[in-house]
Design a protein that fits this description.
The complex is a heterodimer of chains A (1010) and B (409).
Chain A lengths: L9 H8 L4 H19 L7 E2 L15 E8 L4 E9 L2 E7 L12 H10 L9 E2 L2 E2 L7 H12 L3 E6 L5 H11 L5 E5 L6 H11 L4 E4 L6 E5 L10 H10 L12 E6 L4 H5 L2 E4 L2 H19 L15 H11 L4 E5 L4 H13 L7 E7 L6 H12 L3 E7 L3 H4 L3 H9 L3 E6 L4 H5 L2 E4 L8 E6 L2 E5 L12 H8 L6 H24 L20 H11 L1 E3 L14 H5 L12 E5 L13 H5 L7 E2 L4 E3 L1 H7 L5 E7 L2 E9 L7 E5 L23 E2 L6 E2 L1 E3 L2 E8 L3 E2 L14 E3 H6 L26 E6 L8 H9 L7 H5 L8 E6 L23 E6 L8 H5 L5 E3 L5 E3 L9 H5 L6 E2 L35 E2 L5 H14 L11 H5 L5 E5 L6 H6 L4 E2 L11 E4 L1 E3 L10
Parallel strand pairs in A: 7-8, 7-15, 10-11, 10-13, 11-12, 15-16, 16-17, 21-26, 23-25, 32-43, 33-42
Antiparallel strand pairs in A: 2-3, 3-4, 5-6, 5-17, 9-14, 18-19, 19-20, 21-29, 22-31, 23-26, 24-25, 24-30, 27-28, 33-40, 34-35, 36-37, 38-39, 41-42
Helix pairs in contact in A: 3-23, 5-16, 6-11, 9-10, 9-11, 12-14, 17-18
Chain B lengths: L1 H17 L3 H22 L17 H4 L4 H9 L1 H6 L5 H10 L13 H23 L6 H7 L1 H37 L2 H20 L1 H24 L17 H7 L4 H4 L14 H8 L11 H12 L5 E2 L12 H7 L4 H5 L16 H10 L1 E2 L8 H6 L5 E2 L14
Antiparallel strand pairs in B: 2-3
Classes of the chains: A alpha/beta (1010), B mainly alpha (409).
C-alpha cells in the first residue's frame, strides 16, 4: 500500500465533469450508489484459529513466557529476560538475578529484539555473493583453510572479545587443527591501553572490575561510564546506590567529570569541567603529580598546570581525603596515561577497595598491535585464510583502504556475520550468523560470574551460530546445545560445587551481592535446568588480596607526552549511547532515538562550543569541512553548550554503506580521524591540529528539542547538598494557593496510579525511551518527520542547561541562544502526566479522552477524530499525532511494515491508525495484567507487581510507579518526600507524576535563568 | 453459579440413572455432591462408573483395591510412581496399566485428601446404585423425573403455552371463517347480488383516499427507519454466525452427552485472555482409544488422527471475532468473575455445531457490566475497595467496569 503515490487529478475531473448535463449527473449518481452498495456487500473475511498439534506443557497461548538469556554485541553486555508471546520474542527486560546490574538495561539491549525480525539480515550463507547451502561452507571450507595451512600460510581468526567460556574452548580446539594459526581480538573503540597498563602492572591482561557503589569520590576523565564506557548498565546501577536522598539520608557521593564533549555522565556529575582531549591527558598527569605530593612520593614530572578554577587541585584534595573510597577512570588510548590512572588509583588505595583486578572484567580483550601485524603479514602474502566474526574493519579501521588491499591478498576470506556489512562484502565466503535470540551460548562477563544464553524462537532464516559453524568445521557431530551442556557439566558444574564449598563457614566471601538463593547442585541436570531458568551462575569470590602491583613510575614517565598547551582545535571522536561504534547502526529504533545530550537523531555532526561558534560565525545546521592531515569530512555543525572551546567532537558509528536497513545513509564515517600511535600501533581517537572551513549550504539536523535552556520556569528545580542538609525543601517551594476550575473532586477508590521521577537519579541514558517504543508499538517515523517535530516517542528525556548569561525575557530573545558559559544540565523524563484536571480532556469535542477512576488519562483511539485540540492544550507537549499510516504504508521503510517485521509488535497494545492522537497510557496493559494476576491468585495487589516499561528498564531506579492509595507503596513514600514537586505546578492541573528536586554535591554558582 | 451447576447436574443425573431408581440416587446425592462435581471435573473425561471409556469402569473399584482408600489416593496422586514403586497394590496397578495399553493417567497432585475421599465416596455410592439398579427391575416413571427436576418443568411450560395459544388461535380463525361462509350462504340471493358493487366501491374509495395513503406512507416510513436503524446497528455484528468447521465436531456429544467439562479442552479459560482452541494432543487423550464415533464412524475422528500423525494443526474457523482494539480476558470473567460459559456462549452443550450466541457488541458488554453485581468480599483483592465503598451492592460499573482503558489500550 502506498499513501498518496500520485496526486489526485482533481482539475482534470472538473474540466470534463463540469460540462455534464442533468441526465449524466443522475447516471453518475446511480452508478456511484450501486458501486457503494456492491462495495458494502463484501463478505466478512473468514478468520482461522490454529491450535498447536502438541502444545508445550509450560506454555498457555496469550500468556507471555520469560526466558533468561544473554546479549553481547561485542561491546555492550546485558543479562536479559526475553518476553516471548506465543513463540515470538517481543520485549527485552533486564535480568534481576544478574547482581551487577540488578535488572537494569541499556538502550541497545532493549532495541536488540527489533533486529531479530529484520529481513535485511543474511538469510543463507553466500559464496561470491551467491546463496549456497551450508554443506558447501562446512567441512569443505575447513579443508580449504587446512590446504592453506599445509602450504605454511598463516590462518587468522579475528573476532570481537570472546566472553563465552564454551566458545573459547571450542576456538582453542579449532586453532589446534592448524600449524600456523593466530586468534586476535579487534575493536574499533579500543581498550588496549587500559588492558596493557594492567598487564604490565599487575601481570594479568584484564580490565579491572569497578565498584562505583563503594566509592564516595568518583572522578571520570572522558570516560562516559554511565552511557558507553566498558559496562555502563552495571556502572549506572552502582553509581545510583550513593545518589539516594530519601528519608534521613543526606549523604551523596561526589562525582567530578572532566570531558571534552558533554556526555550523560558529565551532565549527571556534581562538577563538570570542559577540557580538550589533549588537556585531559595533561590533567591526568597533573592529578597524579598532586596526589603523589600529598602522598609524599615523587611526581611524574614537573608540570603543575591547572584549570582557571583550580579544579585539579580541588579534585586531588577531595580524592586524597576519601582514600580507599574513591575511583578514577579515564577514556584514553595512550598506555602511559592509563598507567598513570592505575598509579593514581594505587596512591588512593583503590585496588582491593573500589577496583579489583581479581575478579577481572572479561568484556575487553583487544590488542591493536595484533591487527597491525595481521595487516603486515597479509600485505606480504603470508596469510592464507582469515575468518572474521563480529568485526568490521572495512568500515571502522582508520586506514580502511590499507585493510581492503591486505584482504585482497588472502585466498580464503570468511566473514561470519548477521549482515552483509562492509567487510563481508569483501569476503569470498559470507556465513549467515544467528541473532542472539535464536541460539545457545554462555558468557563470563566477570571472573566467576557466568550467564547462559538460550534460543527463544526457532531460527527464522537458514543461519548458524558461531559455535555451530566451528563444530561443523571440526567435524564434530553434535548440536550446539549438546556441546554447551557437556561443557557446563564438565567445567561450570564442578566449579560451582567447589565455590559453594569454599563459601561454607564464610571462609570465602562472594564478590557480588547475593540477590538470590544458591542453585541446587544435586545432579548436573538439576543444576543445568535451574541455571538456565535463572540465567546467571554466581561463583565469584572476593580474594583475600589483590595481585601485588609492580609500579615503576620511570617506566611510564618516559612514554608520557610532553606537557604542552592544547592546540587550538582538536578533533575528538566519541561514542553515542545508542549507536556506539556503529555495529548496531542498522537498528531503526536506535537511529531514531535522539542522542540524550544533543537531542539529535539519525545523523552525526560536528559538535562545537558556543564560544567557538561565535568566534568563527557558525550556527547549528551550517556545513563545515573538518580536516586533519589527509582526511577530511563535511558535516553539519551542532552548537552544544558545555563543549570545550578547543574541541570539535564527532560521533563514531555513522556513515555505514552496508549492513542493516537503517544504517545506510545516516551521517558520515569519521574513523579516518583516528590514528596509530607511532611505533606501538595503539589506535587513538584524538586528532590534534584540525582545520575547519565553512562550506556553502546548510543541512537540517533532526532535532527533537530546539531549546537548550528552561528559561527559568520551575519545572526544573535544583539545590546544593549543603542547602539540602539545612532544609530538605531547598530549591523547592510551596505552590501558591491556586484557583480551581473544577468544583467537585472525583472519588478515586481502589487504586490510584502515580509515578515518581527522581531527577537526582536520572542519568538520561534513554533505556526507558527504547523500552517504551518496544512495549507500546511506537512507530519509527524517520529523519524528515522528526525534523517536522512529528516524533512519536511517548516518553522523551528533555535536556536543559542552566545559563549564567541570562536574557531579558523579551519575545525577540526567544528562543534564547545556547548559553556560552559552562552550564549545569538536567535530564527530565517527560511523559503524559495523567493530570487529574487534564486540560486535554476538556477540549476534546468527541470525548476521546476520559479519566479513569484509577487516575489514568485514557486516550480512546476509536473515538478520536484527529482535531488535535488536545495536543494544543497540553502544557507538557506529550501528545503524539499519527500524521500518516506509519505501520502499514511502505513509505515508512524503517517501520516493521512487512509480515516478518510486524512480529515484533506487542499483541497487547493496539496498533494505531492514521489520524488519531496517542500518548503514554501508563502501560495500561501491564496494569490490567498485574491486577488480573492478583485477582486470579485471590490476594491484594502488592507494591511492585506492576511496573511500567520505563520503570523496568531504568538502570538507576529513577522511575517508580505504583498505587498512591497504598500508603506503604514506594511511590507513596517518594511522593511524600520533601524534594517532591509537580512540573508546571502553577497551572494546577494536578499531575500524577511527581518529580524530585535535583541535588548536587557542590556549591552552586548563582545562575540567572531569565 | 454453584447452584446452577448443581441443578444442571441434578437434572442430568436423573436422566442417566435416577429415573430407574431415584430414591437411592437422591440419598447418594445428598452426601456426595462435592464428589460428583469433582468427579465430573477431573475424572469423567476418562472414566465412567459402568462402562470402560479411556480408563476402566469404576464400578466396584473399592472391592478391587481391597477397600484401601489410602492406597487408592496414592495412585490417584501419581499413578506412575505407584506403578513403578513398591506399594501394596503396585502389582495390580502395573497389570492394569499394561492392560490399558500403557495409557498414563494424569497425576492429580493438587487434589486434597478430603477431595479424593469425596470422589471415592461418590464412586462408591454410584457403584451401589448401579448394582441395586441392576438387581431391581427397571422402575420409576417419566412423571417422577419431571417432578424431581423443577427447572426442566419450568422450561417445558413455555413451549406448551405457545402451542396452546397457537392452536387456540387457529381454531378461532377456522371458526370465524366458517361462520362468515355460513352467514353468506344463509343470506337471500338478491341481497348478495346488490351488495357486491357497493362494497367494492367503498373499498376502492377508502384505498384511494389521501388520508389512507398518508397513513400507509407514514407506517411504511416508520417501519423502514426502524428496520434500517436495526440493520445498521448490526453491521459488523455476527450473531448467529455458524461457519462450517473442518471437523464435524459436536459439542452436544462431548459437553452435553459425555459431560466433559469445558475447561478440560479449553485449558486457557481460567488463566489467560484466550480460552484457547484445544490442541490436537488434548483430543488424542481420548481419541487415542476412541477411534470410531457413533455418527460419522471413522471419518471425522480420522481427521484428528491425521492431524496428529502429520503434525499439521486443524484449521478451525474462528467464530467469535472481537475487533483488534478490544482486549477481552476470559480469565477475568471466568476465573475472577465466576461467569458461566453459557452466559455468553449460550447452551453450547446442546449445540451440534457451535454458533455465535451473543452479538458481542459494545452495548452488550456495557449492559452486562451495568447489571452484574460484584461480591467484593469474595476475593481478598477487593478488600481495600470494599472498605472504601459505602454501597451495599456494587456493580461492575461502580468499580470502573465502563472505563475505556479497561478494554481498549
Amino acid at each position: 500500500m502506498k499513501e498518496f503515490s500520485k496526486d489526485i487529478p482533481v482539475e482534470a475531473l472538473f474540466e470534463e465533469g463540469l460540462s455534464a448535463n442533468r441526465r449524466d449527473f443522475l447516471k453518475w449518481c446511480g452508478i456511484t450508489l450501486s458501486a457503494a452498495v456492491l462495495a458494502a456487500c463484501e463478505k466478512t473475511p473468514v478468520k482461522y484459529a490454529l491450535p498447536y498439534v502438541k502444545k508445550p506443557v509450560e506454555h498457555i497461548p496469550s500468556i507471555a513466557d520469560y526466558y533468561a538469556t544473554t546479549y553481547f554485541d561485542g561491546q555492550i553486555f546485558q543479562s536479559v529476560l526475553a518476553k516471548v508471546r506465543d513463540g515470538r520474542p517481543i520485549k527485552i527486560e533486564g535480568n534481576p538475578s544478574f547482581s551487577p546490574s540488578e535488572g537494569g538495561t541499556h538502550a541497545r539491549g532493549q532495541a536488540s529484539v527489533l533486529s531479530l525480525y529484520d529481513h535485511t539480515r543474511l538469510q543463507k550463507p553466500q559464496v561470491d555473493g551467491k546463496e549456497v547451502d551450508w554443506a558447501v561452507v562446512g567441512a569443505a571450507l575447513m579443508d580449504q583453510l587446512k590446504a592453506q595451512d599445509a602450504q605454511n600460510k598463516l590462518i587468522y581468526l579475528i573476532t570481537a572479545p570472546i566472553i563465552s567460556p564454551s566458545l573459547q574452548a571450542l576456538i582453542k580446539e579449532w586453532l589446534a587443527a592448524f600449524k600456523n594459526v593466530r586468534h586476535i581480538v579487534y575493536a574499533p573503540e579500543s581498550y588496549d591501553a587500559l588492558l596493557t597498563a594492567h598487564e604490565v602492572i599487575f601481570g594479568v591482561r584484564v580490565a579491572p572490575t569497578y565498584r562505583f557503589d563503594k566509592a564516595q569520590v568518583i572522578v571520570g576523565l572522558n570516560a562516559d561510564f554511565l552511557g558507553t564506557w566498558l559496562d555502563p548498565t552495571t556502572f549506572a546501577r552502582q553509581w545510583s546506590k550513593n545518589r539516594q536522598l530519601y528519608g534521613d539520608n543526606t549523604e551523596l557521593s561526589y562525582h567530578v567529570q572532566f570531558e571534552s564533549v558533554p556526555t550523560i555522565t558529565g551532565l549527571s556529575a556534581d562538577r563538570r569541567i570542559a577540557l580538550s582531549p589533549i588537556e585531559i591527558e595533561r590533567a591526568v598527569v597533573n592529578l597524579y603529580n598532586r596526589l603523589a605530593e600529598l602522598a609524599g612520593q615523587s611526581p611524574a614530572n614537573n608540570d603543575r598546570w591547572d584549570t582557571p578554577n583550580g579544579d585539579i587541585a580541588h579534585v586531588a584534595k577531595r580524592l586524597w581525603e576519601a582514600r580507599g573510597k574513591s575511583i578514577v577512570v579515564a577514556r584514553s588510548q595512550v598506555p602511559a596515561i592509563q598507567a598513570l590512572i592505575v598509579g593514581i588509583n594505587l596512591l588512593l588505595d583503590s585496588y582491593g577497595n573500589t577496583i579489583f583486578v581479581q575478579p577481572g572484567c572479561r568484556l575487553r580483550a583487544e590488542k591493536d598491535s595484533d591487527f597491525e601485524a595481521f595487516l603486515d603479514e597479509a600485505k606480504a602474502g603470508r596469510v592464507g585464510g582469515v575468518v572474521f566474526h563480529q568485526v568490521n574493519p572495512a568500515y571502522d579501521y582508520p586506514q580502511s583502504s590499507a585493510f581492503t588491499e591486505a584482504l585482497k591478498a588472502i585466498p580464503v576470506s570468511i566473514s561470519i556475520t548477521q549482515y552483509k556489512d562492509e567487510t563481508a562484502q569483501l569476503c569470498k565466503y559470507v556465513l549467515a550468523e544467528d541473532h542472539y535470540l535464536e541460539s545457545w551460548g554462555d558468557a563470563q562477563p566477570y571472573d566467576g560470574l557466568y550467564t547462559l544464553q538460550q534460543p527463544t524462537i526457532a531460527k527464522i532464516f537458514s543461519t548458524k551460530s558461531f559455535a555451530e559453524i566451528l563444530l561443523a568445521w571440526l567435524g564434530r557431530n553434535e548440536s550446539h546445545l549438546e556441546y554447551l551442556k557437556g561443557f557446563w557439566e564438565k567445567n561450570v558444574y564442578p566449579a560451582y560445587q567447589e565455590a559453594l564449598k569454599s563459601r561454607e563457614g564464610k571462609k570465602v566471601q562472594p564478590f557480588w551481592p547475593q540477590v538470590e538463593e544458591t542453585l541446587p547442585t544435586d545432579t548436573a541436570e538439576v543444576f543445568w535446568i535451574r541455571a538456565l531458568e535463572r540465567g546467571v551462575v554466581d561463583m565469584s569470590s572476593l580474594p583475600a588480596a589483590q595481585p601485588k602491583p609492580n609500579w615503576n613510575l620511570a617506566q611510564w614517565t618516559a612514554l608520557l607526552p610532553s606537557p604542552q598547551e592544547a592546540p587550538p582545535l582538536t578533533v575528538y571522536i566519541y561514542e553515542k549511547v545508542g549507536i556506539g561504534d556503529g555495529r548496531v547502526a542498522g537498528n531503526p529504533w536506535l537511529q531514531e532515538l535522539p542522542d540524550p545530550v544533543s537531542r539529535v537523531s539519525w545523523d552525526n555532526y560536528a559538535v562545537v562550543s558556543p564560544v567557538y561558534a561565535r568566534q568563527v560565525g557558525l550556527q547549528t545546521n551550517d556545513i563545515v569541512k573538518v580536516s586533519v592531515g589527509d582526511f577530511s569530512v563535511e558535516l553539519p555543525v551542532y552548537v552544544l553548550p558545555g563543549t570545550d572551546a578547543k574541541t570539535i567532537a564527532i560521533a563514531m558509528g555513522y556513515g555505514r554503506v552496508a549492513g542493516g536497513r537503517a544504517a545506510i545513509g545516516a551521517g558520515k564515517n569519521v574513523f579516518g580521524f583516528c590514528s596509530k600511535l607511532p611505533a606501538t600501533g595503539y589506535r587513538v581517537c584524538v586528532a590534534p591540529n584540525a582545520s575547519v572551513t565553512k562550506v556553502n549550504g546548510t543541512y537540517e539536523l533532526a532535532r527533537i528539542q530546539q531549546w537548550e535552556t528552561y528559561v527559568g520556569r520551575e519545572y526544573i528545580r535544583e539545590a546544593s547538598l549543603a542547602a539540602y542538609k539545612k532544609d530538605k525543601r531547598a530549591g523547592n517551594h510551596e505552590d501558591p494557593k491556586l484557583i480551581n476550575l473544577w468544583w467537585k473532586e472525583h472519588q478515586k477508590p481502589g487504586h490510584r496510579w502515580g509515578m515518581s521521577i527522581d531527577l537526582n537519579l536520572c542519568i538520561g541514558c534513554a533505556a526507558c525511551v527504547v523500552a517504551c517504543v518496544s512495549e507500546n508499538n511506537i512507530p519509527v517515523v524517520g529523519r524528515d518527520e522528526v525534523r517536522r517535530g512529528r516524533d512519536m516517542h511517548w516518553i522523551r528525556i528533555d535536556r536543559y542547561f542552566t545559563s549564567q548569561a541570562g536574557h531579558t525575557g523579551k519575545p525577540e530573545e526567544f528562543p534564547p541562544a545556547p548559553p556560552e558559559d559552562f552550564p549545569r544540565a538536567f535530564f527530565q523524563p517527560m511523559l503524559c502526566q495523567h493530570c487529574d484536571h487534564a486540560p486535554c480532556e476538556t477540549v476534546c469535542p468527541v470525548l476521546a479522552i476520559a479519566h479513569s477512576s484509577e487516575g489514568i488519562n485514557q486516550q480512546v483511539y476509536n473515538r478520536c477524530v484527529g482535531t488535535r485540540y488536545c495536543a494544543n492544550n497540553c502544557p507538557y507537549k506529550v501528545r503524539r499525532f499519527n500524521w500518516f499510516d506509519y505501520t502499514n504504508a511502505e513509505r515508512w521503510v524503517f517501520n516493521p511494515v512487512d509480515e516478518l517485521g510486524r512480529m515484533v509488535l506487542n499483541p497487547d497494545v493496539t496498533v494505531r491508525a492514521r489520524g488519531v492522537m496517542e500518548k503514554c497510557s501508563f502501560c495500561t496493559q501491564r496494569i490490567q495484567a498485574g491486577k488480573l494476576e492478583a485477582k486470579k491468585q485471590g490476594r491484594p495487589l502488592r507494591d511492585g507487581d506492576i511496573k511500567t516499561a520505563c520503570q523496568q528498564a531504568c538502570p538507576t531506579g529513577a522511575i517508580v510507579f505504583g498505587d498512591l492509595n497504598d500508603p506503604e507503596s514506594l511511590v507513596s513514600k517518594r511522593t511524600a518526600e520533601p524534594r517532591g514537586y509537580y512540573a508546571l505546578s502553577e497551572l494546577n492541573v494536578r499531575p500524577s507524576i511527581r518529580y524530585m528536586v535535583k541535588i548536587r554535591n557542590e556549591e552552586l554558582p548563582q545562575t540567572h535563568h531569565v | 453459579m454453584e447452584l446452577r451447576y448443581l441443578c444442571f447436574g441434578f437434572q442430568m443425573q436423573m436422566k442417566l440413572t435416577m429415573y430407574r431408581y431415584w430414591a437411592i440416587a437422591i440419598l447418594g446425592l445428598v452426601w456426595a455432591q462435592d464428589g460428583k462435581a469433582l468427579f465430573q471435573a477431573n475424572c469423567a473425561s476418562c472414566h465412567a462408573i459402568n462402562r470402560r471409556v479411556v480408563g476402566p469402569a469404576l464400578k466396584g473399584v473399592h472391592e478391587r483395591w481391597g477397600g484401601d482408600e489410602a492406597e487408592m489416593a496414592k495412585f490417584i496422586r501419581n499413578s506412575q510412581a505407584y506403578i513403578n514403586g513398591n506399594f501394596k497394590n503396585s502389582a495390580y496397578a502395573k497389570k492394569l496399566y499394561e492392560e490399558y495399553n500403557k495409557a498414563v493417567m494424569t497425576a492429580f497432585t493438587a487434589l486434597s485428601d478430603a477431595e479424593i475421599k469425596s470422589i471415592l465416596d461418590y464412586i462408591k455410592s454410584e457403584s451401589q446404585a448401579a448394582a441395586t439398579a441392576a438387581a431391581a427391575p427397571a422402575g420409576g416413571s417419566d412423571g417422577t423425573a419431571a417432578a424431581a427436576s423443577p427447572s426442566a418443568e419450568a422450561d417445558k411450560t413455555s413451549p406448551i403455552l405457545w402451542v396452546l395459544v397457537i392452536s387456540l388461535g387457529a381454531v378461532s380463525i377456522a371458526l370465524l371463517v366458517t361462520t362468515m361462509a355460513l352467514s353468506r350462504v344463509l343470506r337471500p340471493e338478491t341481497e348478495r347480488a346488490s351488495d357486491q358493487p357497493a362494497l367494492a366501491k367503498k373499498v376502492a374509495q377508502t384505498l384511494s383516499s389521501r388520508k389512507f395513503l398518508a397513513f400507509v406512507a407514514l407506517v411504511g416510513l416508520v417501519w423502514l427507519t426502524n428496520a434500517t436503524v436495526k440493520k445498521a446497528r448490526s453491521i459488523g455484528l455476527h450473531k448467529g454466525y455458524k461457519p462450517i468447521q473442518p471437523i464435524a465436531f459436536s459439542h452436544k456429544t462431548h459437553a452435553g452427552e459425555y459431560k466433559i467439562a469445558c475447561q478440560y479442552c479449553h485449558i486457557g479459560v481460567e488463566k489467560g485472555k484466550s480460552a484457547t482452541i484445544p490442541s490436537t494432543n488434548i483430543c488424542m487423550n481420548c481419541h487415542n482409544y476412541i477411534q470410531e464415533g457413533s455418527k460419522y464412524g471413522t471419518k471425522e475422528i480420522g481427521k484428528i488422527l491425521a492431524s496428529w500423525k502429520e503434525g499439521k494443526p486443524i484449521e478451525w474457523v474462528r467464530i467469535h471475532n472481537l475487533p483488534d482494539y478490544v482486549y477481552f480476558s476470559h480469565a477475568q470473567h471466568v476465573k475472577v468473575g465466576g461467569i458461566a460459559c453459557q452466559t455468553c456462549h449460550g447452551p453450547v452443550e446442546e449445540m451440534e455445531e457451535v454458533y455465535q450466541y451473543s452479538d458481542l457488541s459494545m452495548g452488550w458488554c456495557i449492559n452486562c457490566h451495568r447489571q452484574t453485581k460484584v461480591d467484593l468480599t469474595a476475593n481478598p483483592y477487593y478488600a481495600r475497595l470494599h472498605e472504601q465503598l459505602k454501597e451495599k451492592e456494587v456493580t461492575v460499573e461502580r468499580i470502573g467496569g465502563l472505563e475505556c482503558s479497561k478494554c481498549h489500550y
